[in-house]
Amino acid sequence: MYGKESVPVAGQVAVMSAALVGTGSSTLLLNLCVSPYVFRMAEIYEGGVAQGEDGDVRKKPRNKKNRYGMPKLSGRRFRVERMNIFGVRRTTEFSIDEVEPMPNTSRPFVSFKAAGSYYFIQGHDMADKVLLQTLLGRELKDHEKRTPNSAT
Q1: Which of 131, 38, 129 is nearest to 79 (CA)?
Q2: How many structural domains are present in the chain?
Q3: Is residue 136 part of a domain?
Q4: DSSP element (H, E) containing 26
Q5: Rounded CA separation 31/123 (Å)
Q6: GO terms for CC (predicted)?
Q7: What domain range is 106 assigned to?
Q8: Does a structural domain hold residue 6?
Q9: Residue 27: how many CA atoms within 13 Å on its side-chain side?
C-alpha cells in the first residue's frame, strides 16, 4: 500500500499548490497586520539628532488648533522604525503635517497614515500625549492617558 504506488504528477502539483497558496496567503495576511507596527518613533531636530538617541528633551511649542480641534504641531519631523516580515528594519521620516489620522479605519492595526505608509502605535507607551492625540485623531482612552512607567 504505502510506497508501492506513486502519486500522479497532477496530484503532486495539486497538493503542492494548495500548500503554497495556504502558507503564502497566511504570510501575506500576517505581514498586512504586522508591517504598520512602529517599534521606535523619534523626533528629528534641525541638526538631525532624534529625540531619545541622546536623551535631550524638546520643549512643546505653542500652536493653534488643527482641523481635529487639537493643538497644531506644524513643522515637527519624525523618524519611525518598523520591520518587514523578514525582520529587516525599515526607517521612514515624515512631517507631522503629512499625518492623516485613521480612527475609524477597517484595516487592523492602523493608527494613522503618513508619507504614503500606514502606521500603528501603542498609545500607552508615548509620553507626549498631545502628539499621541494628534496622531490618533480622537480622544485618548483611559489607558492611553497614563504616562509610561506610572504606578497605576
Answers
A1: 38
A2: 1
A3: yes
A4: helix 9-34
A5: 21
A6: mitochondrial membrane
A7: 35-145
A8: no
A9: 9
